[in-house]
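Methods — Computational structure assignment.
A single polypeptide chain was analysed. Its primary sequence is given first, followed by the predicted tertiary structure written as C-alpha cells.
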Amino acid sequence: MLRDLLESVFRFAGFDVIASETIADAIPRIAARRPDAIVTELFSPTYVEPEWAALDRLRVAAKSVPIVILTTNTRVRPHDARAHGCAAIVTKPFEVDHLIGRVRKVLNGVKTPSQAIAAG
C-alpha cells in the first residue's frame, strides 16, 4: 500500500510519521498532535466521497499546516490545489527523493521536522 511505503520512506528520511488510512481518520490525529506537514493522496480509487470536499475538511482541521498531495491525475491544476489549501502537488509515479525534496521545500528546508502525517 502507498501509505506503508510513505511511512517507511519518511521515517528513513528522519521524519516522525503519523499514518492514517483516510483523510477522515487523519483529522482527529491532527487535532491531537499538530504535524509540521501533511502528505495525502488525491483522487484515490478508494475514496467514496468527493476528494475536494474531504481535502477542504482536512485543510480546516490543519489550519496553517502545509499539505502536499499525491495524485495520478495530471489534470489537477496547481491553482485549484492552492484554492483547497495545498502547498504542493506530486504526480505519481514519483521518485522518492523528489517527494522528500518537495516536502522539505514546503517546510522551508527543515531537515528533520518533528512530525509528518501520511493520510491516504
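Note: The CA atoms of residues 13 and 100 lie 8 Å apart.
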